[in-house]
Design goal:
about 150 residues, mainly alpha, elongated
Length: about 150
Amino acid sequence: MFSADDLSIAQTIQLALTPIFVLVAIGNFMNVLTSRLSRIVDRSRHLLSEHVVTQGPDHDRLVDELRLLDTRIKLINRAILFLVLAAITVGITVGLLFLERLLRFDLEAMTAATFFGAIVLLMLALVTFLRETRIATAILRIPESYLTR
C-alpha cells in the first residue's frame, strides 16, 4: 500500500498545510487592505480636485484631511509590505519542510524560525492596520446634533 517513504511525503504534505492556511489568511487580509487603499486613493483624488477651489477654513480642513489620508496610505502600504514578506516567508517555510524531507537535512530550527518570522510579520501588519483604522475613525466624527432625537 504505502511505503515508509510515501508516508513521510504524506506527512510532509500534512505539515505544509498549516503554513498554507496562513497564506490563505494573508491573501484575504491583503484583499481587505487593497480595498481600503482604493477607497483612500479615490477620496484623495476628490480632495485634490477641490484643493485649488477652496479657501480659508475650508481649505485648511481639506489640507488636514489630505495629510491624514497620506498617513493612512503610508500605513496601508507598510501593512501590505509586511503581508508580502510574511507570504514569502511562509513559502520559504513550506520549501524548507520539503527540502528537509527530500535531502534528509535537519532544517527544523530554520523551518521554525521562518514560520515564527511569518507570524511576526503578520502581527506587524495587523498592528499597522489597527493604526490605520484608528486614524480613519478619528477623521469621522459625527456631530452631536445628528445623535439627538
